[in-house]
Amino acid sequence: MTVEEMKREKTALGLTNEQVARRSGVPLSTVQKVFGGSTAAPRYGTLRALEKAFQKEASAPAGKGYASGSGPYEALLPSKAPCVREPEPAYAFARPQPAQGRKRQGEYTIDDYLAWPEDQRVELIDGVIYDMSAPSVFHQVIAGSVYYQLRSFADRSGHSCTPFISPADVQLDRDEKTIVQPDIFVVCGIDRLKELLSSTQGKRLCGAPDFVVEVLSPSTRAKDILIKAGKYQRAGVKEYWTVDPERLTVMVYLFEADDLNVIPYTFADCVPVAVSGGECRIDFPDIRKQLELYQSLT
């Protein structure tokens, strides 16, 4: 059942939030958020648990509450489309079962991604939609500083590498099943940048950047480490960093060699950027000082 279907059943049966919580085993605070609308995209497991409160009484025919029409989202929820929420144990396999007319996770395409509700930021990886929660201030401090240092180096040195910062779409595998939004990515060489942008008229990058940086957060940690690292390597990314604000570490993955080379750093290091030939170094001690300043304000 969708949230809208459950709302209608709840009203028809005269159930209170407390009764729904008791019947489903879902905490009352979560029930209140789901039915009050403050949780935009409830986790699939939460929705399945909430269904238990209506299973015996629910009599609505399959498909009730879905709109009809020809648009790519006419078969989805009127207000929000389903997606994989993070964090989620074994989240890559926690895929919603299809309702009438709804696609399975793993079947979504770029057309679906482009038609997704604008107020819900998502990524598409191998046909699976992943929800992207809004980043924290500390996440943005790190991403902004890394981008600024990369941009300053390029301007100062005349180096041909061009940095970009999220949100920007990357059609990583040049197929119809994957679009990601790296926190930071770099393309080296004007001719290569033109090649990666020309097929989409500059709407998104089509192909693999040379260098990608992802700042880890609780909602994206597993995806960035377990899924994206492999995706980036197979797509042809030469260098990949994961920056961990909690542990104050930087893991550098170098994919150009035959064997994967992983080099650990901390926020006490100035970390060399391999695609620049090591000429550019990101000053993480300075980033740590910035974080400490913002943390002192909270």
Short summary of the structure?
The chain has 298 residues and is of the alpha+beta class. The chain is 33% helix and 17% strand.
CATH topology call of the largest domain: tt1808, chain A
CATH H-level superfamily of the largest domain: tt1808, chain A
The major β-sheet equals: 6 strands, mixed
Mean pLDDT: 81
Q: Could you say what the CATH architecture of the largest domain is?
A: Alpha-Beta Complex
The CATH first-level class of the largest domain comes to: Alpha Beta
- Secondary-structure-derived class: alpha+beta
Gyration radius (Cα, Å) is 22 Å
Tally of strands: 12
**End-to-end distance:** 41 Å
> What portion of the residues fall into strands of 2 or more residues?
15-25%
Topology:
Elements: H1 3-13, H2 17-24, H3 28-36, H4 44-51, H5 110-114, E1 122-125, E2 128-131, H6 137-157, E3 161-165, E4 170-171, E5 184-188, H7 190-198, E6 205-206, E7 211-215, H8 221-235, E8 239-244, E9 249-254, E10 261-266, E11 270-272, E12 281-283, H9 284-296
Parallel strand pairs: 4-6, 7-8
Antiparallel strand pairs: 1-2, 3-5, 5-7, 8-9, 9-10, 11-12
Helix pairs in contact: 2-3, 6-9
Description of the structure:
The chain has 298 residues and is α+β, with helices and mostly antiparallel strands. The chain has helices at residues 3-13, 17-24, 28-36, 44-51, 110-114, 137-157, 190-198, 221-235, 284-296, and strands at residues 122-125, 128-131, 161-165, 170-171, 184-188, 205-206, 211-215, 239-244, 249-254, 261-266, 270-272, 281-283. The protein folds into two domains: 3-131, no CATH class; 137-296, tt1808, chain A, CATH 3.90.1570. A hairpin with a 4-residue loop joins strand 8 and strand 9. The chain is globular and about 70 Å long. The two termini are 41 Å apart.
